[in-house]
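Please, structure for the following, as tokens.
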Amino acid sequence: KRGDLGKAAELTYGVLNELKKNLDEYNEKLKEIQEDGTMLKQKVDSEDIAEVVSQWTGIPVSKMMESEREKLLKMEERLKKRVVGQDQALKTVSNAIRRSRAGIQDPDRPVGVFIFMGPTGVGKTETAKTLAEFLFDDEDAMVRIDMSEFMEKHSVARLIGAPPGYVGFEQGGLLTEAVRRRPYSVILFDEIEKAHPEVFNILLQIMDDGRLTDGHGRTVDFKNTIIIMTSNVGSDYILESREVEESLSQEKVMKILRNYFKPEFLNRVDDIVVYNFLEKEQIKDIVEIQIRRLNKTLSEHNIKVDLTKEAKEFLAEKGFDPQFGARPLNRAIQKYIQNPLSLKILEGKFMDEDLIRVDADSSKLNFEKAGKIKVS
């Protein structure tokens, strides 16, 4: 209007062109986002359903969406990452789980019922934890019950809850409440040989019908549980067979168990799994697993330890005991790694993002700063 041709040309050929170019770029980006998927779903899909069911049942989405066949076929491989030196035991357990999942086992019974035999510290409890993590993606899906607390007849009511009018009725049973709240779980009865005979009547009902009635009269479903009973009976026989390099046959195992358990109880067990004594080389593998766990804990403080080969051998030597398996190793790591490391952290010698190298001499482990770790 005012005849400002210079300004008009600037707007027409400069600013407007730049704005148009920017608009085209934004439209292109919007098109890419729309092709990848809408920001707000128009339909509920299987992932949405899995998310809701996961919140109800405690089964993680990743496990629900993963192919059941693929998961079960690689079961032993996954379990071996945490349980060392017990390949035959893991194969037996895996086969039983696969039978149940394939539908060729009684659907009205628990997924699996096992007796784990063997000396202390060889991986019986660790197998139960690993099964819970593998099948239900959470170690907390394991319920551990120490049967030495149920040696008296009156203590049996603690498992299913006291009947109406008795003390403790409001609390519910230790076993039945745990399964009622989390029906997908691994139930570990530790040192089952110490339990009162009345406990076995309860177990027989679970093993037969896959259910149990609690003190409140409610039926609790055990069909999605795995029942594991550990026992140290026969450890002397297992050790004796090991010393003469003789394999422990199924017939010998059953002969040992018949001295402690009734035939009707043993006949309802899916598999009896015998655990081997651990060798020194296998303790070295467990050292690797334990150090990975320690570093996972240390990662919360942005610290990492790196052990030399000599340091790992030092721990394996200190933590090896043929009679007590891997249990002394936990104490060795606490004594030689965790105790001195915690002191050095409190003294300010090691700080956030430090990489700590651990080496060994004849009598102790030595710690030194080896650089910085990358924190994402």
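The mean pLDDT is 83. The two ends are 59 Å apart (CA to CA).
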